[in-house]
Amino acid sequence: MADIPDETPGADQLCEQCGHLFNPHRLLGYGDPPTEGWMECPVEGCKCRMTWSMDPNVSDKIKATFKLLPE
Q1: Whether 32 contacts 40, CB under 8 Å
Q2: How far apart are CA 33 and CA 63, in angstroms?
Q3: Residue 49: how many CB atoms within 10 A of its CB?
Q4: Are 11 and 19 in contact (CB under 8 A)?
Q5: Closest CA to 26 of 4, 1, 54, 46
């Protein structure tokens, strides 16, 4: 299967921590909707990890944009 180019603005930006492409990094979290979690690089052997958090009182409009993966 051929790679499909990412047309997202900034798709070619590199991660400042590990130097790999930033967009493929996985954003993981907990809560419903998630308000904190971690981000990790999908490149095998890369140890790049970052944490993130968001104000739990974020607007309903922003909460509606979250897409949760099935468990």
Answers
A1: no
A2: 7
A3: 12
A4: no
A5: 46
Prior bond of 33 cis (ω within 30°): yes
For 49, the 3-state DSSP assignment is strand
- Taking the model in full, what pTM does it have? 0.59
Q: What is the pLDDT along the chain (71 residues), one digit of tens a residue?
A: 445 555 666 668 899 999 999 989 998 888 777 788 999 999 999 999 999 887 767 666 666 666 655 54
Question: What distance in Å separates the CA atoms of residue 51 and residue 61, rounded to the nearest whole number?
Answer: 23
Torsion angles phi and psi, residue 11, rounded to 5: -60, -20
Q: Which helix (H) or strand (E) holds 61?
A: helix 60-63
Check if the beta carbon of residue 28 is closer than 8 Å to that of residue 37: yes
